[in-house]
């Protein structure tokens, strides 16, 4: 325990400790001296760029170097662009380089240029004096102050919208110090001009006064905002450090540092839920920690260092060492503090004595159990293990917690198991070769998904996959996602042949769930490897993902074949529409001729949307039959008879070319009918044009134009049965019974006389119906008598024919009360018929 607390320093009611993270692996000739340094939070990478003013000659190019937090080189290249005012990192670990002319260059973790943007035209003329990179709920932002003393903000570099803030009265050049604040989803700039303090927002510049600021201060020369943007620290030329809330309404403390020169760096160090926030100030050889208790801790620095603000402390990066300065968590303080009687401390001692096989272990356990705090002791040990960086200390605490759990019957295992998993993951990413010194607090804030993303971004695919499998992350969120990123990186390796890469990707990805080969193929195409993209698309099972990319790659023929194979008509239509827009008309039609399915679907489309195109298709294919059909359909859309007849004549010509005699004859008869209808319309004034032959006959008969109807009947060779039915129906509808009777007597009816009976009954005229009953054939007599309600006649006919079925039909219509005699007669006849 003495060893663990050896580097603890008290500050008020709290303790602060330095944790050694790494012995740095880089070899820097002059350390961090004369270098612009920027380190990403959450154990992110570190970038170094030699100050342009320190170059041996103006023509010499400074070297930009990117390292992991352990000092392992990740990228290095000569800086060939303009003078840099500030370096910074995005939330996705992309490097931002803000130049003097306002251009912001974006590089990935390995120094590959991604894109750039400008902070405005005004900046080009006035140049950037100072710049800052900040993180807000909107993403990564950039703030600059120009030579015209104007501030410009870019809230989110991924959705660039520049905001030019109002002028600051009396400001000439850069302010003495400034910082970016994010409050209530609004981003503002807090700046000091001498002793005056201003807040700049979108519309106004507001002077503010920190409550309780020392009157000895003539100028505010440095300021710092906490990681959470809740607290503000101001350092004055009198050596006083003011600490309070960022809304400048509450003062936490004011500490006299006894150092009047401006610190090189000033950052907040505050553990979440801690009531003892502090500020870390760094000068050339001095590191000072000032707390709200007005006490300070001083550390002597033996080399040039850089402070990096973190969620739960401050990282101190030097040329030889990388350390973490943080407030000692309460769980660790309770367990390891000298002479502590906290439950966790007693349980740790009990376990140590148990490992020595000492009876003192039982005494410690009894004391804990008497106070009924064994559960709390286990929780303290589990929590403290998460805050420790050394694996041996973690194991000691977890073994003590496991030992205490043995004496509890209902302690939930989840916190212990979860902490073991978390620490195994953390220890693996803290390894020197990986170089991500995350704390447990940062890990929980970051989430596993973000950690996996960062490992993938660093191309640490095996470790990312192992962590996903160990944590049993769903495949589509874990292993599959990592493999997809690996494949996208693999296709960019230009030294390997296409076949080799396609095979490697196929073997590695196999049947992994949730992987879209089309995305990998799209990346290959972006890299100029079209053939590789096509090979990768062969592994994509979804045609809907294959086809759009094939079209993008100008492989429309292959895309059409894939769309047809899928059986998805919408997809085929998509490709056909694309081909129609991209090709000339002749090539387009020739392409469709080689794909019958696509041609058929396109014809269906043209039939409803583009009639003229359909005609062109038939012409090109010499499809005379379909051309004839096209002219017939087109004729029905014409209102003028001459135009209609002209189209029908064209149809006849096409049918003759197709040797379709039936269709040609039918079309000629249609033309003959149209001319006949036109003549009748002109002579009689009847609106017959456009009616079918059947309807025309019916209309003529209904209008008493029997002569014209007869002519039509003969000219078009209408079958006798159809004509008799038409005339019978028309006369009955008119109730022209005399004409109907004449018609019946004109010659023998080809349809019989039962229809005459039925139409008369339908028109409620049984008197007329009776006239035709006698002419009905014997087989239909019973039906005719029943139709007019003549039961006696029906019975006579049924008995005469000795048909058991007809007798039964008549019996079913008889009433037992009124037709008793008839019933008896029919029953006797049925019995006789049955015997035979």
From TrEMBL:
Q: Which GO terms describe its molecular function?
A: actin binding
- Taxonomically, the superkingdom here is Eukaryota
Any keyword Iron?
Answer: no
| Name by which UniProt lists this protein | Vacuolar protein sorting-associated protein 16 homolog
- InterPro entries with a match to the protein in the record: VPS16, Vps16_C, Vps16_C_sf, Vps16_N, WD40_repeat_dom_sf
Q: Which Pfam families match?
A: Vps16_C, Vps16_N
Q: Which residues form a coiled coil?
A: 638-686
The gene from which this protein is expressed is VPS16
Write out the function statement from the record: Plays a role in vesicle-mediated protein trafficking to lysosomal compartments including the endocytic membrane transport and autophagic pathways. Believed to act as a core component of the putative HOPS and CORVET endosomal tethering complexes.
> Which positions fall inside the Vps16 C-terminal domain?
515-830
What's the source species for this entry? Esox lucius
Membrane topology (UniProt): Peripheral membrane protein
